[in-house]
Amino acid sequence: MAASIGRDTQSAIYRGGAVGRMPLVPADWHALEAAARSVMSTDAFAYVAGSAGREKTTDANAAAFDAWHIVPRMLRDVSARDLSVDLFGHRYPSPVIAAPVGVLELAHPEADLGIARAAAALGIPYVASNQASIALEETFAATPGAPHWFQLYWSSSDELVESLIARAENAGAEAIVITLDTHMLGWRPRDLDVAYLPFAHGLGIAQYTSDPVFRRLVEERVAAAAASETPRINGAVLRTLLDMTRHYPGSFWSNLRSKEPRTAVDVFLEVFSRSSLAWADLEFVRKRTKLPILLKGIQHPNDAELAIRHGADGIIVSNHGGRQLDRAIGSLDALPAIVKRVKSRVPVLFDSGIRSGSDILIALALGASAVLVGRPWVYGLAIGGSAGAEAVLRNLLAEFDLSLGLSGNTSIADLGPDSLTRAS
């Protein structure tokens, strides 16, 4: 990443303003969220913005950052800055990774292709969601040469898990991210109050409907339930059936006559997750891929230790952006103890709550090797498609670059706990 990204991005915005060209996306977090809300449907915004319970975990994520202040140092030559990081044998131009976010068609028709193109333009890894709107093969093929990772939700079908891993590796993924904290859905009042789960409408299940194992499970179910009852048709049922039909592979009219789209949703809801997983089960994935395996959702130092003992190549400290468990520990509060326990044996990445470039700096100073960003670029995607997502990520990188220099540092290696102080 060019050391001038901060200055160049800032200058481009000001030069544009001088000739009447306003930025595509707001730089301020609250304005960004408001702008996205204005262009998204009520159901879509509730799904993206909502968190679990009273959303206290989301509050805890923000409060954890507020507990730290950056201590700038002066009279250091910071004219040349290096934002790059080394992870799992790859050198990336910045420490920012586009986090996996599902059902992106709720935000914009470009969906996964939009964020893949945005990340590729900046050279940063994009973690393709297991709950994608577009199959990973299509997304990866649309951004050749770009760094791609794949997020795995561990299904109740081992055969499906094996198929998804093989597809990701064959498509060119550089890492597998296993999300641990979604073995059941959290209690999300914003979604519950509008009685809306996108998966029940056939949205966000493209990785499944494009998978040969999943398709076989659906075909077997259709054959076994040929005489199954069809729900009484009303407006809501008709809209749901049309949604399922539109989002299932194949022609609209053939899908409309088929039971497969509706059956696919039923099968997905059955095989999506598995709450019986234990540490020993990680060996199943380890035996089926040579790719680095990262475990996402670690919040306790003991779990970090267990992750390493059971073959994890990396850890992602995350509480799913507050979407799973209400009143959980803020991710940044969990980070220092986990970094201390890991002792550099594997990279420790950070997720949940990044809203600014200074947030990135704080997480790195507390020991993170890189950070994952989710909601901000989703809002950019909603506002302006791929260009909007890229603009949001570019703004974050620009602010991080400027924060790095203004704090008296020239690289991530310069950052450490002494770069910060606890807020009084």
**CATH-defined topology of the largest domain:** TIM Barrel
Shape: globular
Number of domains: 2
User: In oligomeric terms, what are we looking at?
Assistant: single chain
Rounded to an integer in angstroms, the radius of gyration calculated over CA atoms is 22 Å
For the biggest sheet, the summary is:
8 strands, parallel
Low-confidence stretches: none
Task: Write up this protein.
The chain is of the alpha/beta class. Helix content is 46%, strand content 11%. It is built from 18 helices and 12 strands. It has helices at residues 5-18, 29-39, 42-49, 56-66, 111-122, 136-142, 158-171, 189-193, 206-209, 212-224, 235-247, 252-257, 260-271, 282-286, 301-309, 331-342, 357-365, 375-406, and strands spanning 68-70, 85-87, 90-92, 96-98, 126-128, 148-152, 176-179, 293-298, 314-317, 348-351, 370-373, 420-422. The longest helix has 32 residues, at 375-406.
Q: Any descriptors?
A:
TIM Barrel; two-stranded antiparallel sheet; 424 residues; 2 domains; 11% strand; alpha/beta; eight-stranded parallel beta sheet; 18 helices; 12 strands
Fold topology:
Layout: H1 5-18, H2 29-39, H3 42-49, H4 56-66, E1 68-70, E2 85-87, E3 90-92, E4 96-98, H5 111-122, E5 126-128, H6 136-142, E6 148-152, H7 158-171, E7 176-179, H8 189-193, H9 206-209, H10 212-224, H11 235-247, H12 252-257, H13 260-271, H14 282-286, E8 293-298, H15 301-309, E9 314-317, H16 331-342, E10 348-351, H17 357-365, E11 370-373, H18 375-406, E12 420-422
Parallel strand pairs: 4-11, 5-6, 6-7, 7-8, 8-9, 9-10, 10-11
Antiparallel strand pairs: 1-12, 2-3
Helix pairs in contact: 1-18, 2-18, 5-6, 5-18, 10-13, 15-16, 17-18
